[in-house]
Structure formats: structure tokens, C-alpha cells
Amino acid sequence: MNIEDHKLLIFDLDGTLYEDTDHFEYHAKNLQQKLPVDKQEAFWKEYQEMLEGKHSLTIGSVYDTRNDVILTIDPETYLVQEVREWSGEKWDVSQVQKVYSNKILLDFSNFVAIGDGWWLPFANAIHYGLTTDDTYDSYVKTKEYMVSEQFQLTITPGLNEQLREWGKERTLVLLTNSEAYDVNNLLTSLQLQDVFDEVVPSAMKPGQTEYHFTNMMEKWQVSSEETISIGDNFINEIAPAVQLGMKAILINSASADVHHPYVQVISSMQEICNTKSSEA
């Protein structure tokens, strides 16, 4: 798809404008230390299995915190297609239909979309008995670590220049679940603090994604055909865009085998930097 044919570009932040992953391990280690000693080894073993794709919980799945089970959902209808126990045992179809007959609400509390590397240690920690307060405390500490001298974000070659070039004739918007303070720090570290026409933090994606997309198109007076969503999370940024008739660019996701005329899959933002167009 030709990016230059579009007037509004909506970007995610984490995993999109930077692709470092060391902070996820830092987060996981913080959570591990909060657990009783007799659970720490098992927690870490399962986390490594998740990273290696050997666990039922994977990026792209949904974790039901109340029932401690792992769901596969249709990203367009939010209906549950498959349920697995934490151990991997699959539910039969009749049980799935009985317990999950209606579409689910991805609310960061009861139903958590495992959209990127932040959520693997979160779900693992909840499974082993930690609370959401425990996980949030670790998340805050990890964000602080990410802007400390101990951590250095990797700047994608050509990204700054390409965003500024696109911004000359297009509207650039940043839509992220990260909080404003974190966003400002990260953009400063990435030297992107003055690039975007609009920055929307605490966006509550995916629940509020469609709402934000619709408002942005109305605000900037563009059609869905003139708008692209760019992100690494299929549920958060790609499926809602397609449903609204927008185009989308999916970055290095576990859902990278998707085939849709409105979706282009790339391995990194660098793949579309310093090029005038990119053909899907």
C-alpha cells in the first residue's frame, strides 16, 4: 500500500516506534521476586516457555483472569472460538458455548488481551497469585527503568527523518495505552517529542480504539480510505481499523500470517523508512 496516498497516519508507541524487549525481562524479574520463593522457579520456567512459543498463553490470545483460562477470540466479533486450561487442555465445543456464549469485553481486568510482551509476565503473575496492584507496581518501576541511565532505547534508523517527511503533508497522531508521563519520556528518548500533531495517551485500546479512530477522522476531516493505523498489536490497532474501512500496517506480530487486502505486514518500522511507498 502507498502510504503517501493517505492523509492521516495513526501510530502505536510500544513495539512500534521502538522495538526493544529487554524491559519485558526486567518486568518479569520484578514480578518473580514478589512471589513466594517456592513459586519463583515455576513462574520463570513458564515465562520462558511463553517466549519460546511452547505455552498455551501466546501473544494474540486472551487471558480470563477469573477462570484462569486462555481464550482464542475472533478479533472482529470478539466471540470466543477456543478455550484452553493453563495446562493446555482444550475445552470441548459445548463447554465453550455454555460459558462464553456472548462476545467478551476486553477490559484489562477480567479479560486481558495478550497483545504484546508486557502482558505475558502479567498473566503469568496473576496465575501464580499476584494482584493487579502488584503487577502495576512492577510496570511503573519498569517504565522508570526505561528512562534511566541503565537503559538505552534503540532508535530505529531513519525513523525520525521519515516521520518528519510524512508530517510535511500529512497528519501524524500517536495513540497509546501508555500514560502521559511515560509517553513524554519515551518520545524524548526517541527524539520524537515534536513530531506528532496529536498525542493521545491512556487510550484504553482495544476497548476504545474504534472510538478514537472515529473521532480522529472527524477531527482531521479525513475518510477511512485516507487513514492508516500502524501498530504491533492485531487486536488493539489492526482489527478495529479494518472494521472501519481503514488500511493498517502490522509490525512483527504473532498474527503475522494474516492475509487481508487492507493489511500490510512488515518486520520493523525500518522496513518502510526512507522509502516513498511500500507495496503490500
TrEMBL record:
Coiled coil: none annotated. SUPFAM superfamilies: HAD-like. InterPro entries: HAD-like_hydrolase, HAD-like_sf, HAD_2, HAD_sf. It comes from the Bacteria. The keyword Hydrolase applies. The keyword Metal-binding applies. Pfam families: HAD_2. Gene3D superfamilies: HAD superfamily/HAD-like. Keywords: Hydrolase, Magnesium, Metal-binding. GO terms for molecular function: metal ion binding; phosphatase activity. This is Hydrolase.
